[in-house]
Amino acid sequence: MTVKLNERAFQHAKKVVQDGEVVIDDRDAWSEHRPSAGQENHYIEEHGMAAYGRWYLGIDDEHAEDTKGHYKFPYSDFEKVHRCGVLAAEARAAQNDYTDIEVAAAHLHGMLDALK
User: Given CB 3.0 to 4.6 Å as the disulfide criterion, which of 15, 73, 79, 83 pairs with 57?
Assistant: First the structure.
């Protein structure tokens, strides 16, 4: 399994943060703010898989691009970047030695903290 940074999602996340579409929440809020499987499916039905992928910092090349399994490390609710999602992605990437994703999430973390 090769999981690597989804550069398109990282660029999208930076733009969303620059546009001020963020939620500055606490680390532990991600379990409440993370989209459910039903919300993910609805988003895919409405916007397509390519748009869905913009909200995930990682891609897994073991899964086809047209599957949800291809996308890892969510950071948003499909509208706003959530600080708690970025922190969760940063921690999980570090635990799994996905350095490129960890560095990208840390960059977003810094951008969000600068808004506080």
Answer: 73
Note the pLDDT tens digit of each residue in 93-113: 999 999 999 999 999 999 999
Annotate the chain with DSSP letters as a single string.
--EEE-HHHHHHHHHHHHTT-EE---GGGHHHHSPPHHHHHHHHHHH-HHHHHTTEEEEETTS-TTSGGGEEEE-BSSSSEEHHHHHHHHHHHHHTT-HHHHHHHHHHHHHHHHT-
| pTM, two decimal places | 0.94
